[in-house]
Amino acid sequence: MTTIKEMGRFCPTDHNGNILNDASLQNINPGFMKVIEETVEHYKTHLKEDLHSIYIRGSVPRGLGIEGVSDLDTIALTNKTTHDMDLGWVEKSERFLNSKYKCVDGVEFSFFSIEEVLKTDHFSIISFMIKTHSVCVYGEDVRGHLPEYKADITLGNEHLMNLKRQIDQAKDDLVGNDDKEDIADCCRWIMKIIVRAGLALVIDKESKYTRDLYPAYTLFAKHYPEKETEMRQALHYAVNPVESPDEILAFLEGMGSWMINEAEKWMDVHNSKKEWNL
Prior knowledge:
alpha/beta; globular; five-stranded mixed sheet
């Protein structure tokens, strides 16, 4: 069992409140470099001229990666849409890299067209992640072409507007599921979403943002002390996922339903204010 560590930090900001990117190649633990290099080669081999650039996001480029625990999350920007590319190789490449490299808990490939990412007339979580939480490891870095982002209600909305759908999806995936690995993956995924949604509920009060789970949990608990125990349980499940669908479903029926109700109330208040200000 992995011990919950009091690690992670809130995103740094400039004097205007814009989130600063603290990811860099220099921050990457050398123990991750071989798997990063081979992952890049898989992208280059299979995408060829369709590949524009590759980014590493998350804890690894921020110097917070833990060998054997952290995922390697990658983003490829492509010159074509995913519908126009053959991505049948992805699952095989992920399996190969996951079996070869034990320094990461898993390698994740993802693909987004360069045209899609550079559209800045609406909020995009991928554009946000590239701008604020990623480092370019291949190709032309587009971060300078992306807008600035603040820890505000726009970001809060992004985490809360799909929460009900995500929890419902997790429930559907768990019912009748006897694949232990799949159950654990679902548990880890939905609990991370819940912890980050907890931070979103207080982002308007604190003007702070992080994707790191422990500081997100602490900030939520500051404003919702009566729900501290439940959110710490979500944090525990995210770090140490269980393989019992009944246990996860029971938590989602309780704390998950409460989170959905709070998210809906939050959006009712803040989205009406936003419309009024317009």
